[in-house]
Design goal:
This protein is mainly α. The strands form 2 sheets. The protein has a two-stranded antiparallel sheet. Strands 2-4 form a two-stranded antiparallel sheet. Helix 3 packs across helix 4. It is elongated.
Length: 122
């Protein structure tokens, strides 16, 4: 792009190309900011839960070790509507051990989030 800018002799043409360059730079800045937000909006553990639900990977839990942290993570994902409780299921009905997939499913918004995030990754 810079080669094209330096080879333009007309003031009007040069102005237009410089304006295009500024617009492209601005768009790249916007893309970089969006990538940063998507990469950091959902913490790594929560993102893994979301991906596991999308891939239908077993997600066992037990009350003593994983449940307290898991419940907080699932509440956050449900709060931003990336996952949803299955009909008739609740946090209180999860019991001492089980599989998260029995109680929660990924939403369309969750699938869209993963698809967009994947688009930002190399």
């Amino acid at each position: 792009m810079s080669t094209i800018l330096t080879s333009v002799d007309t003031a009007a043409g040069g102005f237009v190309l410089r304006e295009v360059r500024r617009t492209q730079d601005g768009q790249q800045d916007d893309i970089d900011r969006m990538k940063f937000v998507f990469d950091h909006l959902i913490p790594r553990d929560e993102l893994q839960h979301l991906q596991n639900l999308a891939d239908d990977v077993p997600m066992p839990y037990d009350r003593g070790y994983t449940r307290p942290h898991l419940e907080a993570e699932l509440r956050r994902l449900a709060g931003v509507e990336l996952i949803a409780r299955k009909a008739g299921k609740s946090f209180s009905s999860m019991g001492d051990e089980g599989d998260v997939r029995e109680y929660f499913s990924i939403t369309d918004a969750g699938r869209t989030y993963l698809r967009i995030l994947q688009g930002f990754r190399p």
